[in-house]
Design brief:
109 residues, mainly alpha, Helix Hairpins, 4 helices, globular
């Protein structure tokens, strides 16, 4: 499945909104919340309080993807194009491979 195929299937599951600002807020807060759930699982793993549940992380990353897709669609972007734009940005910043932050002047900003 391509990102654009996912985008069409996933957005069909979204609640219809009359108020675009409320839609934007809901999708943005949803993205932050789901990303926070992933981060919390990693934090608990690193603190030694809970082993990491990779199945749960996979599900949460799917939720992150859903909200990312919803925001992408809200702004009338194609998810494939967002991904390509990110690769262009990363390649401009890091060249053909990532070698760590701080190795070149201005890198990591």
């Amino acid at each position: 499945m391509t990102f654009n195929e996912y985008q069409k299937k996933a957005i069909a599951l979204a609640k219809p909104w009359d108020d675009r600002d409320m839609q934007l807020a809901y999708y943005g807060l949803g993205l932050a919340g789901e990303a926070g759930e992933c981060v919390d699982a990693i934090k608990k793993h690193l603190s030694g309080s809970k082993p990491i549940d990779t199945d749960a992380i996979k599900r949460e990353l799917g939720d992150v993807l859903w909200y990312l897709n919803a925001l992408t669609t809200h702004f009338e972007f194609e998810l494939d194009d967002v991904a390509k734009t990110n690769i262009v940005k990363l390649t401009a910043r890091h060249g053909t491979h990532w070698s760590g932050y701080g190795n070149r002047e201005g890198e990591g900003k």
